[in-house]
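Listing 4. Sequential folding, example run.
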Amino acid sequence: MTLLERERELAELGDAVHAAIEGSGCVLLVHGEAGIGKSSLVGALRDRPPSGSRVLIGACDALSTPRTLGPLRDLTPYVGARLGDALRAGDREEVLTALHEELTSTPGTVLVVEDVHWSDEATLDVLRFLGRRIDELRTVLVLTYRDDELDRDHPLARLLGDLRVNVRHLPLRRLSAAAVSELVSDSSVDAERVYALTDGNPYFVSEIIASADAAQVPRTVVDAVTARLRRLDHTTQAHVEQLAVVPSVVGVSELAHLVPGGSGALAAAEEAGLITVRPEGVQFRHELTRRAIVDALPASRRIELNAQVLTMLLEVGGDPGRIVSHAVEAGDVDAIVHWAPRAARDATVSGARRQAVEHYRAALAHPERFGAAERTELLEDFAIELHMLGRGFDAVDAQMEVIRMRREQGEPAALGASLRWLSRFHWLAGDRSAAEAAAGEASTVAAGADDRGLLAIALSNEAQLAMLAHDIPRTIDLATRAISLAQDADEPGALSHALNNLGTAHMLQNNDDGIDELLEAADIAIASNHMYDAARAHVNLVWSLLEQYRLDLAERYLQPALELSERTEVVALWAYQRVEQARLHLARAQWDEAVAAAGHTGESLPQPHCVALMVIGLARIRRGDPAGEATLEEASRLAERLGELQRTGPAAAARAEAALLRGDLRAARSIARPAYDEVVRLQNGNLQAELASLLRRAGEVVEVPEGDFPFAVQARGDWKRAAELWRANGCPYHEASALAESPHESDLLAALAILDRIEALPLARRVRAILRERGARSIPRGPSSLTRGNPAGLTARQVEVLRLVAEGRTNAEIADRLVLSVRTVDTHVAAVLAKLGVATRAEATRLAPDVLEPAG
């Protein structure tokens, strides 16, 4: 079919390729609804590649459990030996290194990955790796996806949020009535009726035209596809149905097993426009066509056809993930129990944790087919993968069953190791008492097993729990013992783990020896491929620096820490790092950015979710949003359930601040004082200083720690020095808060200027009231509310950004238009999406007419 009304998109593809050849790579996001013509656009690029370029195309398949690195493995015949070998082996780090080398050595490469909404986690990880480096590669990375497949929690939505450099959007629109008329001009169907039925969706238009005759236009696309299939002879129909249960390209060798006569037997189906035959294999012209055929098949026929595909894959040596997928569809238990564990472990090696979970689940659906020891190992591997994905409650349930089986099997070392994992799972799920019980038993069992390495990790786990409870002496004692044992046993994993806890304990004492210890812990973990522990060391380092309000240093370590967690797909720690980003924005009074970053955590991870709620609540109360206090109350309830000072103390500080902002000094004191007493007992100097500062503002003077920590200085009444320290640390809200304690009108006016600039309305109102009480003249009125009348609460700048997004402009184009940096525009776009409650620009564009006021 003729490619109509795509001239602009084809031109932009061509421009991007020429720019890449000249040294400026980019990411092109081609998106729209199903059937909108994404594959047709890619086909035009493949058939007519721009001069000087090569085009590599891989596709994601609509498998229930996606192939690990599937679209990249499609490229194996067309790339160099090193990348081909890496893709076949599936080792994540080698794939990343080899792919970077391949693209660097071949400028002008166009790498297309179709239907990324069906991608596996390992592929998304590779795409994230390339996207972050696209400015240094002379490559165009083209990703196609369906807008309607995405929501906020979709893994692709997270990837799209992380692609920030040289990114262009190519949203595809439906055809106009004129284009539909041109397409039907050679047929006997009525153009207006076709347009009314299809609303200009190119695929729907093509199916209706191809299936209709002069007498009747099919009412649905399924009717149209079915009608075309039934016009074929019975043998060809059977071949097409066989191919339809394979949601990927059917290669030449596979085709020979599935269709007697190979591609030659499919001429009629090709002429009917159902399939496309190429030298590399056969596939359906559109996924919707394949899906319509499969959905029309009786269940018994689908099972029979999947069984034949399974037989073929076993004969040709197919990918384990594909084998499992078809074995599940065929109900072949023997194949499932044989291949699912292997597919799960392959997925784990490649970093495709979601796929690993699904393969383990498929295997464990048949527990009677495994011996006790193998079943226990499979279930524990399953629990660990759930934990890595941040599904803490599910991990606990699975690991409790592991512990039951370990006790029956009577192997102390294995039981001790499993108890250590259970302790970690319990803590992340928010059950500290259960975590401590499992940790204590793990150490007891490990000591009895006479395994120094196991005892080292068990003691380090207890040290970690002590550190999280701010029991610093116990942490240092246990961690030091664990380090000695780990060194004696030559156990780098345990050594890294223990150094991590020791370094964090030192940071909690404001001892910078902890920085070197945490970096050493990360280096040891990386060298021994304990990537979770490496990521945790970076989390603890950044978190500690944020506690000290050393924002620039925290930001320096945060970005590489995020990249490490993303590459290792440790979702639980990635969630912590998103919260760290949110805390960084909050400290800098970047309210929208803080809320947007905090919005990425969910209730399945109660620890980071608690902090995220505090960030969102504080950002709201400081701007005068009445919803802020309810959010802080929710955070406080969750903190009490988690039962650790690191959560209860900050929650109390946040609620006391809210009481101060509404002028309720008594409430502020009643909230802050019990938390202050607990902080003094546990000797958390920084949190003691913050609570002391709040209590001073509420009219109660308490003991303040020594030192130059800004809260401590402010709590001692030295507002001027505190303001200087806050300014040096880049914390404008806190600077203004300190200046607001000054007796001098000039300082109050300086505080007011800051508060107006950052839109901190409640504190600005209180400063204005103080100035009026003191008889000040010429008090600035302050800015009018930028969000008044806007149903989504967008600021004026965000309204401008949304209007340009709705016009289809890229972030770079918006930056040029508004004279901003691309990074600033990235942040504004993220904040707009968060306020609108959507995951994609396309969804924001659809909501824009209801949000935007008419342009003046």
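-- end of first protein; second protein begins --
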Amino acid sequence: MLGLFSFGNAFAQKPEISVDLNQVIEPMKPIWAWFGYDEPNYTYMKDGKKLLTEISKLSPAPVYVRTHSLLVTGDGTAALKWGSTNAYTEDTNGKPVYNWAIIDSIFDTYVKRGMKPLAQIGFMPQALSTHPEPYRHHWKPGDPYNDIITGWAYPPADYDKWRELVYQWVRHSVERYGQKEVESWYWEVWNEPNGAYWKGTREEFFKLYDYAADGLKKALPTARIGGINIAGTRTKGAIEWTREFIEHCISGKNYATGRVGSPLDAVLFHAKGWPRLVDGFIRMDMAPQLQDIRTGIEIAQLYKQTRDLPLIVGESDPEGCAACGMATNPENAYRNGVMYSSYTAASFARKYEVATRKKANLLGVVSWSFEFEGQPWFYGFRDLATNGVDKPVLNVFRMLGMMKGNRIQVRANRMVALDSIVKNSVHGALSDIGGLAVTSERSASVMVWNYHDDDKPAPDETVALKIAGLTAKKVNLNIYMIDKNNSNAYEVWKKMGSPQQPTAAQISELEKAGQLSCVSSRKIEPKAGSVSLDVKLQRHAVALVLLKW
């Protein structure tokens, strides 16, 4: 039974949302507590550490972090869509030389904060690549995307050395962090092998996976590995790729061992939306993203060997290029303000609903959004913070971190039905005014949003919210808000005149404005076990109504 009931769709109808704390669906997994980014060297830099500390504190469960380029050759200099660790080189005789210093500094940053790596085995070290030159790219926003595809994207010249590299890495990780810690991680091989990231054949990728998995399991038999983080999951080609990969892991000949099958402890795939400019304004589209998630679940459930495995959406975002700012991609201007935060709230509610409907073991949904060190303020990158100042979208995750317990059913007369939003997103006349609700022994919370795909002004709407099933005689009520006036450093920055060199006082003001704002706090007495209140929402606002007793 799903958490959404629709009873009416009249244009003038006042939005109404009601929840009953006794109508439990299932425990609320922290599927949102997963993040990722292209540039691994940002991890241990000033603003990277600051943001990771904030992310680690907002979640009641350990946060998982995924990043590219952990095996790429280089001196560790960070750049857009580039990173390196120099983990593997060879001496003049072709003998492997391992150097874990930079990888350690990355994983140390996570582990010290109680975070967990979703450790990506990739990309190809220069000394192992079948096409080692050119290797280092110098891509910048506006350049052709394929300019980033260089020697790191090719198969290994020696698969035995590739396997040994993975073995040595995992063995080192166990020695440094302990077996129990590394057993709590997930490992995966490569990224989007059906796209630009892999310059080999499909069979060569299966061979790459087999050798990596064999090296990992030899170092730590209980380590967990998965794949394949396919791009465009809903498309015909991606479906074929994913099915062939799963079938290879189930019954194919293992290239590394000669036996049947290959280890597969989780199924990973990607999901992306599609914003664009329509008549000069931004129009979002979450339908492709939700279709990708639905398709990934359906593929895994085709096979008895994978239908109950953990499913991880390795990247789940409104579109594909985090480092493509609004100067070169004006459709990405949604990222600075509340359109990104309301999209995130509305889409995560549907991710939960898709998983519930499909009875899927959806473990994690990676938001491919972090920070870009030393870049212009509010440049329109897909990031959670800019120069150490949090964007409104991070406050949605703060709200999700406050929602503990069991998900409960939500009745909402203006919440777009799941089938409709998966097919058409929210392109119609009405906005999507919906809710996500949870309850625990001493608390209840309802996240409410006012979302539309179109970035156009619209009148505020007042939601009549009713929370029933309360047994306490008095409750503490707090309402948190993300809108143009609250939890929004971007609007404050614009009022400052959009400075690219803000003063220390201005930065302090921006940091404060970037935190989650409580707009109402009081004690109330439920009547007949119910609380009713009006919540006024601007277009693209997100509110969290939190009750404690």
